[in-house]
Design goal:
single chain; alpha/beta; nicotinate phosphoribosyltransferase; 12 helices; 38% helix; globular
Length: 371
């Protein structure tokens, strides 16, 4: 039986995004694709995910694989088409059931609450005194989120992304902006540009600033204004744009995906180079230095993507000592337990290809129209 009120189980940034879209009167039809990085296995949880989507968004169209189908790494396993307001607050739940059911069936891996506590404790001790937020609700079944979040709080986390998890310590869920919201503002800029016959302009440059400005306009002023700056893979330029134009900006979050190098980082061309994809030490250093040199020392940096790994956190902390420079002010972590993480991305809005850099539409002829 699905909960009548699903909102406590949803990442807060999706709930706030829906509020912004409703107040902005934006509700375009989107196409969203779902994939799993750790393929070479059978996939499960598809039927349960479909039931979640159809229960809360009955008008949604879905194309999907079947439970038990074999998938390759990063293969598209589901496509959802619906007005954005119908589905933006469902992602946490349907991704989580696919991740958990596949992990349990294929790897015989259920969650271990003590292991989660210890993993989070390892990260929080390294980051101390800087806060660490648990952001992994979509990596496991929503019905287990409360106990997972409590284990993370016991391990030193200061916040989590869902209300059901935060309630275990008398708090509310935390979160600001997801890539999905930025995709809608990317489309809106393209749509306006087309109507003005200004199609030569690269409207992706508007995505981060416009989404952050909308958050600033509509969301409770008590919530920190944190721009998610990697959508366009312009981590430096978009950080500066937001700092220059949003007076209330508290900080920026870097969540660069593994398909991309951070802006200003030269890709690995020859043997011996060490520049890495995703949120890299060199990329964060460059951004922090440019912010400081531009008079924005007060803008905080939040890092996410891969920071449940204590070794990665340790590398940043040790580099700070060598550089005599603070590189981050807060961490967002998700994978404090094993999971075949499932990811969802908007890839089309009103028939226009719209997606964050590095995540275009990947057609999969194996998908079957479900409804």
């Amino acid at each position: 039986m699905l909960p009548q009120d699903h909102k406590p189980y949803i990442d807060k940034y999706f709930l706030r995004s829906k509020e912004i879209l409703q107040k902005h009167l934006f509700n375009p039809k989107v196409k969203l694709q779902v994939f799993m990085r750790k393929g070479n296995c059978q996939v499960y949880g598809i039927y349960e995910a479909i039931s979640i989507i159809k229960n809360y968004a009955p008008s949604a169209k879905i194309w999907a694989l079947k439970d038990g189908d074999y998938i390759q790494p990063c293969e598209t396993i589901m496509i959802i088409e619906a007005p954005i307001q119908d589905i933006i607050d469902l992602e946490t739940m349907y991704l989580g059931v696919i991740s958990s059911e596949t992990s349990i069936r294929i790897d015989n891996k259920d969650i271990d609450l003590e292991e989660i506590r210890l993993n989070m404790e390892a990260v929080t001790k390294l980051a101390n005194p800087r806060p660490v937020m648990y952001m992994g609700a979509r990596h496991w079944h929503y019905l287990r989120d409360a106990e997972i979040s409590k284990a993370c709080f016991d391990g030193g986390a200061h916040a989590c992304s869902t209300d059901i998890g935060a309630a275990t310590v008398g708090k509310e869920g935390a979160g600001t902006i997801p890539h999905a919201l930025e995709a809608i503002f990317h489309w809106r800029a393209v749509d306006i540009g087309n109507k003005l016959k200004n199609i030569k302009n690269n409207m992706i440059t508007n995505a981060v600033l416009d989404a952050t400005a909308a958050f600033d306009r509509f969301i409770d002023p008590a919530v920190p204004r944190i721009a998610l700056v990697d959508y366009s893979n312009r981590e430096i330029l978009d950080s500066l744009l937001c700092a220059q134009n949003i007076e209330s900006l508290w900080g920026i979050r870097i969540d660069t995906c593994g398909e991309n190098f951070m802006e200003g980082i030269m890709p690995k061309i020859t043997k011996g180079t060490s520049n890495s994809r995703g949120v890299s030490l060199k990329g964060v250093y460059l951004l922090r230095k440019i912010l400081n040199d531009s008079g924005y020392e007060h803008i905080k940096i939040v890092l996410s993507s891969g920071f449940a790994n204590p070794d990665k956190v340790r590398n940043f902390v040790e580099a700070e000592k060598e550089l005599n420079m603070k590189l981050f002010d807060m961490l967002g972590v998700g994978q404090v337990f094993y999971s075949r993480v499932t990811t969802g991305d908007i890839v089309e809005v009103e028939g226009v290809p719209i997606h964050k850099v590095g995540r275009p539409f990947k057609c999969n002829p194996k998908l079957t129209e479900i409804c």
